[in-house]
Design brief:
The protein is mainly beta. Helix content is 6%, strand content 44%. The protein is built from one helix and five strands. The termini are far apart.
Length: 82
């Protein structure tokens, strides 16, 4: 039996919890508990309250998900200060 594909959704982070966990409100109004994917911590991508994110939901448990992408809010490249 093949593994089922994840359901891809978008939402807004409403709460930051310990251990890279977040509470995310989806576009359809549902609230899910999501964790940051491994590459997010590997590349030091910070997710904060109010960020728009893309996440994958398991078809088996629709209350939990994995954040796979954080959309830019400023629209431009990040500026480094020395």
């Amino acid at each position: 039996m093949a593994k089922q594909e994840a359901i891809q959704m978008e939402g807004v982070v409403t709460e930051v919890l310990p251990d890279q966990n977040f509470r995310v409100q989806l576009e359809n109004g549902h609230v899910v508990l999501a964790y940051a994917a491994g590459k997010m911590s590997r590349f030091k991508i910070r997710v904060m309250v109010g960020d728009r994110v893309a996440l994958d939901l398991s078809p088996y448990d629709l209350t939990r998900g994995r954040i796979t992408y954080r959309y830019r809010t400023d629209g431009g490249p990040a500026q480094r200060t020395r």
